[in-house]
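ESCALATION

Customer reports they have been waiting on this structure for their group meeting. Please prioritize. Original submission:
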Amino acid sequence: MSKILIVDDEINIRELIKKYATFEGYQVCEAVDGIEAIEKCKNEEFDIIIMDVMMPELDGFSAVKEIRKTKNIPIIMLSARGEEYDRLHGFDLGIDDYVVKPFSPKELMMRINAILTRYRSSYSNITNNVYVYDTLRIEYDARLVYINEERVEMTPKEYELLTYLIKNENVAITREELLSKVWGYDFYGDDRTLDTHMKLLRKKLGEYGKNIVTLRGVGYRFEK
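Update from on-call: job pushed to the front of the queue and completed.
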């Protein structure tokens, strides 16, 4: 049974998510703010965290930053704010998804299920391949990316986006296909999620960011 930590200062939000998660067969724990969430993560193991942004005592972004120091747990952020800055900040901290309130609890459960499925499969399907292009090197077995022999830190989604594009080199990949293959579900939400991840990925790739070509009205392509 997978274990979810719901972090939100609004009891009605926690109860709503708990109701649907319990129905789906998840074990649910709750925290009312970032400080309590950090303490629970120190003492318990969770499969995924649903974290609100605006909370008293300690906000969600600060809590995620602290948790990420010791735990590689999938995290979905909840927020009433949908501005690009907030999304970028969250994804830069390594969150897996960003959901704007008000939200559909059914869609949230779909996202949770998809993230956990992708997370487990990405770590179980290990290969011994290495991709090399000039000074860019990807070690698929270890899920590591290097540029000029220096390791590039990437979130799971950034890594999956990069490797999916590279494995389909010179092929035009639609936005819908990327969302389906990388996020693992038919995406009904705001597709700015993909644009935000791509922007961060290009920044981390430095000189190789230009190799990810935007196909206006279609999607993206990785080309040398």
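Sent to customer with the following note: The mean pLDDT is 87.
Escalation resolved.
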